[in-house]
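Batch manifest line 479
LIGAND: adenosine-5'-diphosphate
JOB: complex structure
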Amino acid sequence: MTDTPTQLFIGGAWVDAADGATMPVDDPATGEILCHVADAGAKDARLAEEAAVQAQEEWARTAPRARSEILRRAYEIILERTDELAHLMTSEMGKPLAEARGEVAYAAEFFRWFSEEAVRIDGGGGILPDGRNRMLLSRRPVGPCLLITPWNFPLAMGTRKIGPAIAAGCTMILKPAPQTPLSSLALAAILKEAGLPDGVLNVVTTSRAGEVCEPLLRGGRIRKLSFTGSTQVGRILLAQSADAVVRTSMELGGNAPFIVFEDADLDKAVDGAMLAKMRNMGEACTAANRFFVHSSLADEFGRRLAERMGALVVGPGTRDGVDVGPLIDRTGRAKVEELVADAVERGAEVLVGGRAPEGPGCFYPPTVLAGVDPESRLMDTEIFGPVAAILTFDDEDEVVRRANDTPWGLVGYVFTEGLERALRVSERLEVGMVGLNTGLVSNPAAPFGGVKQSGLGREGGRVGIEEFLEYQYLAVPVR
Ligand code: ADP
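JOB STATUS: finished
ARTIFACT:
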């Protein structure tokens, strides 16, 4: 960690913020300051923009194979440094080391996947229906991009955007979340080592997100925004992108339903619930937020889930045997506490957990609430913590209606052993992704994304690179 960069990365050089500002990075397990990193302002944003704009033309002309090989080398370096990167991530974000190692592998995979996609960008063409004209279609990079990432997956949210941007031939400014800048800075150093030309990727760490991002979006030189974060901030950025008609990809919030039908295999459902709820301490937009369990199984499901949740070890992510690390910060924990208090006031029964421990760090115990009132605030708020809220239902139509009764539509989880019901319910859910008898959907080779207010566009999969490419159509008469 001692040699992790803490400066801005602009035009291939490590530099301080123009006004010399720095910001602290906290360890959420202790509340102590780990280090300080550069805190960029508007002037640094302009410099990063200039570097990205200057590098764009030549970068777009680079051989696809050369771009592919940079990604491939970076993939290999990331895997070689798994332990180092996992420790860095755990120290700034809190997740247990085993999960951090899992994220390193997941993050690296985006580079391998897009190294394979970089050489498969194809255009097309043909004779038009009138027989007198021909069309030639070519693909070109959309241009300099602004990438804004959240703190919950500090490495993977970066590679999921940087991978396709490099593959497509776009230059970039990456603005990571202020809570977790170190993983992004380490990633920039790895890409430089892998041979990425100067100016292609620029990283501005900042506590002044609006001051840095708004001029970039309104300025007319940034051609693309790829954002992962809350729906609330997403709306603001969409409005700012309208001025200069910036293309956008938005991965926003979720409110995932987790539906357990009366014909479900309860072992699979409880395993799935543990994954869908507890991955990343529940700090994931894919986290199951509302458990709808058929009334015939609800008691048994609640009992078994509470037993599994109660057995998890809570503590600092660096300690051996810990399953659940701290939440990201005091604000995040206070929100979880308020949501639980509201549900309990409305009659929910606490099967396990439910009370934050005393002492330093932002810990919150795995919690299961049964008999949750549908009017509770956690039904229409992303909990972003290790709290499973169980409601009951009796009828398929009713549960589909309730599952869809939300402005979000990222992912849904369906547990049933009936094939027809599985397909029917999955098709009726207004979501971009469905986990059928599984609690994990994320995979670099699959298109990740949501409908409704969960976002626009997809990341990963064959379509992930499309978000960074334009078509150019050439009309040529047939002579
Ligand atoms: P969370 O509540 O999970 O932190 P946010 O949507 O607030 O989610 O943050 C996601 C990312 O968006 C972070 O990198 C954050 O710094 C950034 N962000 C927040 N507000 C703005 C803004 N006004 N302009 C640009 N980026 C922003």
